[in-house]
């Protein structure tokens, strides 16, 4: 047994009991198999849901959530009211929780571990934690029993001992846990989502269900976010829409842009295709829009010379944004390699390609086939150019063929088994110009492929 | 009793020319606006070909169809048109295999080329339409198969709205259905002018203008020499070998 609910506990069941004992005590006990992965997932969903209270939420262990409510409690009319609202909303979802509010994350955690509920006034952390049992420190069971064996039964008594002696006897872990619980050292919160650089939100009295409603709300939020971005002199690179469903489910949609932007219409268009992914079901009662990544974007002065160009650049970036929401879009950058497949590298479409070196003025194909087909080829001499080539079912006579261009494998990139290739530009009787390649040993075992089409 | 003839007898030639003028105004009405905003001329190919085209070159803000009788030659011709259109150029294909080391010969630099992979026709058409509507783009190329009239018409209207030159690169089929494109070309390979069996020489193409709105079909042999298209004067024919438009 890994967990029991309140009713079962009242009947005498406890964690760690054998299943047979439990069934003997309470024959009609409802059993659910343990599912750590499912529990972790549910906890993460709950953490996302908790983002409605504060932007900084962390998951603690297997069953805890830590909310940093610094600066948000006044939105809920105080810490006590906030705690009550959290509990009420959890209860509506059928969940019970132990909650505590304290000035330091470690203190709050210690209080919850010890089962203490409420708000600690600032400055009284030490006195509140002192009478608690050692469970507050969340230590190994062996260490707790060792401490109890020495007569150290509460946090306060352990605190009264000299620290060096404690560290020597029980390790620095205990001292660290103690300091965190007493609020002497800060305990970092690892957020499940990085706090956004900028966020706007909207609550709805009547949950929005329809596509039109969501679009209208999104337009509203985008306008507000873009206003905030303009005031900050920044543009968004990534925007996250988080929709809180009435039943506690949270859904997220993300869009990215190539250049920083704060044009609400452009952003709305990027979201348009993605909104289909939302499942409103019984409706959303809150939408938040976060700019999770922003770049500086200063207002541009419309000068005579640069106005048109900047506008063009922005328009092009918006087009590439729209295309890349749905399809892969890239540019090609020149790479210093003679191996044809490596001569060009894919790069981000929003960067500008540098022309670092010129190409040798040799005939090069305009289309390089990604899956080059094998060819049947006749050559007059084993190391000579092709004489006849079979394309499909027909043998074509080669009218012209240039001398081979040998391309050696790059030993610093390739394995030792890669063979050198001989490339022949050939012109068939039909006028077609092909870039054919022979790899492998010359003679009957030579393998011929069609690697590209010459213009 | 029959009603008296109240209408004046029709002046048929005048009526037809008036209707023609009206159609001409309706067609490419948006293009005129987009082009006047951009203020750019038609794209020159070669003096001989330009003289045969009613616009003095390949007009922007329009859709042009290229049937590839030979993949390499057609890609070369397309690269030439894209490069001369200038600006950023998009290459939309199910599997874009454009290779800048070869395209650079026609003046198309990798700095202006953006590749879009669209495996499904629907996505490809959407991407092409979005691109053609964007005035910041110089030209766009779509590698596609059969295209229905409605889709082509949509693309043509999008090109008119954005002032962008659109190229449709299609495989050469004997009975390619008519589309809304302004011109249709068939590009094939021609034997090059060199006599040596050990040298390929300049790329040589047969350019068949199969269909041309308010123009006549024609056929040329041309070679790419240095950085220009040199038309072989003797080979100019009035009608392409096979008419199919």
From TrEMBL, chain B:
SUPFAM superfamilies: P-loop containing nucleoside triphosphate hydrolases. It comes from the Bacteria. InterPro entries: ImuA, P-loop_NTPase. This is Protein ImuA. The lineage of its organism: Bacteria, Pseudomonadati, Pseudomonadota, Alphaproteobacteria, Acetobacterales.
